[in-house]
């Protein structure tokens, strides 16, 4: 059966067929020796027995029965040199393992065509000999633990047939030498997230077949070269005639965006974000018909947005955020952007001037236009965007009621909504029709009426910021059942009345509670001490009375406690000495009494930077221990009933500047 099959398939024997061959005895021996170095906790190598090693897990052979492929994952241990005995090994894939040192003898296996050692826990120097392997076409050492190489050395080698080179997320350093332009078979080069520095050699323009170039997250400096060397060697009118993907983001590149970018017609993705580029966006970019992603955010580009960008009919990702763009944006800018999904225009001074019945050609999922001028009316075109889930219209000059259709048709799919810093008015619907785990920021508007609650959510950790509005009425008693997993709650600076619901204690993921500057009454519920992840508790400037609950001493992670400007009475509970993360303690403007406790300086509070106890009725002598607060920068004890002298030790506050004493 085996023999017949072999005869029929003849020359065209496939890999699977070849596994029916018996493997070379010498290769079998080499593999068994290789296995002795491996750690195999999940017994993945249990099939490695019997005479035919071509049938073992991860092994394939050529038609002569010689091992041609070794493809093993989820192992640990050592890569033993017995691999060098596999004379016909072409494809070595040891990615996703937990090995240690990169073996330098790998480069002795001259038959190798592809080598994938990505994500395999390797460290050490990348053997320069890889560049001399005569048949090597594919090398990935992506994301290991601290593989190092000096770029001038590594790229001065021959790299005769190298086609794909992926060295991302390692520790390459030094400058890219101009000899990189000799690697003329390259189609794919990824050096992202290394420590490459210096300029980009213009010889890269000689890589006529280069499709993918990513050097993001390095320390490249200088301007984008014109790659003119390339136009000659590639017999092309434009530089980099095959380039489809160019990512040089997160470097320190300077200068203007070159006009030639608009000539690289094959470009599908262009990411130059987070550099130091300045000047205008060239209108020529609008002729890149295949462009699907354009990311220029986080530079210093200025001027207006070219109308030609509206011709980019394949564009799906459009990011020109964090710039100094000015001028008007109208329908023409989006004319043919049928496929736009991500629109990031935020942090610019652009002014949107579209007609009130504009129907954008796209259905965007993410619309981020914070700080662009969109008002004064609420943008009606948003009603056409049925798939939007991320919406930032903050600081956009909108001075209007939120239309009913926003809550009926748009908001329920949102996982992020930021309309802060506008002049939005009217009542908010309750329940707020929004995705359960959404981050919602409606702060700094003119909303009025009762506090709305989003619908009950399972997921969480989210943000609800309703601060600086004109909301009134009490905090709903059932806020905890509506928002059991909320992480950040800010209701500051409204006109909220009534008591703080005890149910806060069951919102166990809260990290920030800010109810400051309202008209809250009654006691601080002890149950807040059950919010065990709380970092910030701000109840200042209300009308709270009663004692400071000792239970608050349970908040191990609390960094900021503002209770100032209330009518709290009694003594400072000694349990507060357990707040070892505390940096700010503000109890000023209350009716607290008693001596300043000794423990404030003695135990636990070494991170305290700000201590304000002003305008209370504290009495007795100042404890000299206070000066042990080695991080203290601001101490405000004014307007109390202290007597005696200022302890001599107060000269010793380590972090204080002379002006920080406020009496
Ligand atoms: C690899 O080649 C070098 C030089 O040719 C030689 O010294 C070394 O012993 C070889 N290593 C292995 C494991 O074959
Ligand atoms: C490689 O590039 C360098 C600098 O660009 C050049 O001087 C050298 O002749 C090239 N070597 C080969 C073998 O092409
Ligand atoms: C980048 O290079 C500059 C100048 O050579 C240096 O000051 C800076 O520390 C480098 N940054 C990183 C992240 O390596
Ligand atoms: C644009 O993309 C299409 C389809 O992928 C392709 O056929 C065409 O060659 C590309 N244009 C250029 C200039 O690369
Ligand atoms: C862009 O910024 C440069 C200086 O960085 C300035 O000279 C130029 O006038 C600005 N252009 C526009 C259109 O604002
Ligand atoms: C957008 O503004 C430009 C320049 O003012 C104008 O030529 C164009 O007609 C405008 N587009 C629309 C759709 O109004
Ligand atoms: C806004 O567009 C309208 C109609 O196209 C035009 O009349 C008006 O001048 C534009 N406003 C600004 C500030 O560009
Ligand atoms: C929510 O988004 C889905 C697609 O992502 C869409 O089918 C659905 O109509 C949207 N719902 C609303 C209320 O917009
Ligand atoms: C909303 O936008 C404002 C202004 O752009 C910003 O300060 C705030 O952090 C944003 N809120 C959230 C939750 O991201
Ligand atoms: C919260 O209470 C209000 C009024 O008592 C009620 O309408 C609402 O359904 C409650 N929400 C939850 C989540 O229990
Ligand atoms: C804190 O939570 C525990 C367990 O749920 C509960 O028994 C206790 O009463 C709560 N403490 C306060 C002060 O609410
Ligand atoms: C504060 O609460 C007291 C009752 O405890 C009340 O008489 C007073 O009017 C309240 N003040 C404010 C500003 O709400």
From TrEMBL:
SMART domains given in the database record: LRR_BAC, LRR_TYP
Main location: membrane
GO cellular component: plasma membrane
Membrane topology of this protein: Single-pass type I membrane protein
Subcellular location: Cell membrane
Record's keyword annotation contains Hydrolase: no
One Pfam family per UniProt: LRR_8
Keywords: Cell membrane, Glycoprotein, Kinase, Leucine-rich repeat, Membrane, Receptor, Repeat, Signal, Transferase, Transmembrane, Transmembrane helix
This protein's record includes keyword Kinase: yes
Lineage top rank: taxon: Eukaryota
Gene3D superfamilies per record: Ribonuclease Inhibitor
InterPro entries the record matches: Leu-rich_rpt, Leu-rich_rpt_typical-subtyp, LRR_dom_sf, LRR_N_plant-typ, LRR_R13L4/SHOC2-like, RLP23-like
Signal peptide start and end residues: 1-18
PANTHER family recorded: LRR RECEPTOR-LIKE KINASE, LRR RECEPTOR-LIKE SERINE_THREONINE-PROTEIN KINASE GSO1
Record-stated family: Belongs to the RLP family.
Name of the protein in its database record: LRR receptor-like serine/threonine-protein kinase FLS2
UniProt source species: Morus notabilis
């Amino acid at each position: 059966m085996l023999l017949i099959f072999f005869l029929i398939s003849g020359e065209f024997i496939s890999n699977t067929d070849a596994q029916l061959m018996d493997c070379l005895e010498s290769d079998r021996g080499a593999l068994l020796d290789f296995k002795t170095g491996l750690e195999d906790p999940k017994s993945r190598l249990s099939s490695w027995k019997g005479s035919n090693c071509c049938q073992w897990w991860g092994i394939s052979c050529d038609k002569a029965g010689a091992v041609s492929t070794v493809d093993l994952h989820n192992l640990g241990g050592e890569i033993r040199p017995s691999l060098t005995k596999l004379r016909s090994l072409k494809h070595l894939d040891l990615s996703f393992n937990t090995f240690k040192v990169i073996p330098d003898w790998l480069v002795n296996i001259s038959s190798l065509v592809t080598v994938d050692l990505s994500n395999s826990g390797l460290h050490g120097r990348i053997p320069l000999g890889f560049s001399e392997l005569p048949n090597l076409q594919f090398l990935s050492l992506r994301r290991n633990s601290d593989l190092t190489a000096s770029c001038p050395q590594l790229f001065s080698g021959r790299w005769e047939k190298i086609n794909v080179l992926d060295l991302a997320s390692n520790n390459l350093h030094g400058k890219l030498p101009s000899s990189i332009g000799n690697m003329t078979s390259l189609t794919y080069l990824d050096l992202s997230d290394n420590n490459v520095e210096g300029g980009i050699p213009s010889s890269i323009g000689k890589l006529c077949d280069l499709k993918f170039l990513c050097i993001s997250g390095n320390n490249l400096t200088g301007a984008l070269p014109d790659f003119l060397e390339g136009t000659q060697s590639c017999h092309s009118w434009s530089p980099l005639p095959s380039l489809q993907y160019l990512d040089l983001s997160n470097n320190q590149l300077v200068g203007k965006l070159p006009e030639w970018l608009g000539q690289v017609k094959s470009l599908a993705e262009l990411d130059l974000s987070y550099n130091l580029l300045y000047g205008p966006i060239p209108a020529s970019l609008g002729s890149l018909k295949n462009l699907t992603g354009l990311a220029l955010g986080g530079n210093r580009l200025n001027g207006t947005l070219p109308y030609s960008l509206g011709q980019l009919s394949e564009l799906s990702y459009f990011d020109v955020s964090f710039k100094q763009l000015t001028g008007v944006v109208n329908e023409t800018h989006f004319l043919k952007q049928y496929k736009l999904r991500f629109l990031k225009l935020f942090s610019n001074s652009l002014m949107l001037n579209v007609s009130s019945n504009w129907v954008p050609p796209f259905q965007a999922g993410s619309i981020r236009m914070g700080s662009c001028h969109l008002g004064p009316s609420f943008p009606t075109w948003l009603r056409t965007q049925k798939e939007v889930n991320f919406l930032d219209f903050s600081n956009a000059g909108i001075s209007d009621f939120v239309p009913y259709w926003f809550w009926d048709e748009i908001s329920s799919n949102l996982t992020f909504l930021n309309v802060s810093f506008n002049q939005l008015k009217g009542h908010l619907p309750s329940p707020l029709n929004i995705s359960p785990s959404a981050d919602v920021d409606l702060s700094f508007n003119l909303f009025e009426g009762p506090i709305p609650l989003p619908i009950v959510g399972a997921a969480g950790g989210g943000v609800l910021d309703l601060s600086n509005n004109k909301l009134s009425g009490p905090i709903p008693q059932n806020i905890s059942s509506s928002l059991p997993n909320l992480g950040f709650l800010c209701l500051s600076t409204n006109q909220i009345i009534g008591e703080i619901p005890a149910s806060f204690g069951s919102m166990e993921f809260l990290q920030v509670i800010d109810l400051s500057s309202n008209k809250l009454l009654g006691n601080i519920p002890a149950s807040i001490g059950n919010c065990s992840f709380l970092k910030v508790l701000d109840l200042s400037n209300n009308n709270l009375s009663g004692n400071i609950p000792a239970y608050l001493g349970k908040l191990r992670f609390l960094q900021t406690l503002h209770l100032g400007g209330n009518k709290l009475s009694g003594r400072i509970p000694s349990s507060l000495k357990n707040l070892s993360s505390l940096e700010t303690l503000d109890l000023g403007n209350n009716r607290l009494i008693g001596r300043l406790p000794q423990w404030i300086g003695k135990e636990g509070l070494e991170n305290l930077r700000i201590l304000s106890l002003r305008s209370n009725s504290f009495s007795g002598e100042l404890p000299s221990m206070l000066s042990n607060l080695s991080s203290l920068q601001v101490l405000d004890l004014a307007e109390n009933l202290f007597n005696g002298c200022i302890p001599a030790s107060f000269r010793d506050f380590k972090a204080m500047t002379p002006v920080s004493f406020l009496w």
